[in-house]
Model the fold of this input.
Amino acid sequence: MKGLASLFFIAILAMVGIYLVAAMPATDPGNAQGAKDTSLVLSEARDALIGYAVSDATRPGELPCPDMNDDGVIQIATDYVGSNCKSYVGRLPWKTLNLPDLRDAAGERLWYAISPAYHANGSAILDSDTSGALTVYASDGLTLFSSNAVAVIFSPGAALNWQTRGSTVSSCPSLGSSVAGYLCPDNYLDAFNCPGANCRSNASGPFVMGPIRDANG
Done:
């Protein structure tokens, strides 16, 4: 996933790395205000996740599962089964986090990827030995920034030509099932014009920090 990103660490038993990624092309001056607005929205989402993590007295540091049906609320069977999330990438559960309906500059809701060990309702205690599992590269797509990020919050930006974000149900490879286009992570993750060798349209990453650059730099 490409975009602008900022790294934040919070100390809760272990150091939790939450990355913010915003799809805002660096070559379009008209996107400057949009990038600023999106950055503020992402920061608000990050702060809410931090608040969620530190407020859990039973298992400090845990984070909610991603929202799989775009209703903003985490629910059993829909978003998690037993002690496992249905998927480790999906929409940010904004209602569960007591947030307003946050949108990026393109009007899209935020998405969210989480390391499996950190999801809510897990059985293992989170401590200094608990590492994140997400990989993040610098904006060149080559320089490794982190191989143990705990979570990534990202704004998808406007749909690319090949992305179908409507209500038509079709196969979603990353979920291994058929869902409406607007629920499939594949239609929000991209590697279009991404620099370097580590850019993939893949729900588990790796993710690439921005700014986005096209073929003209």
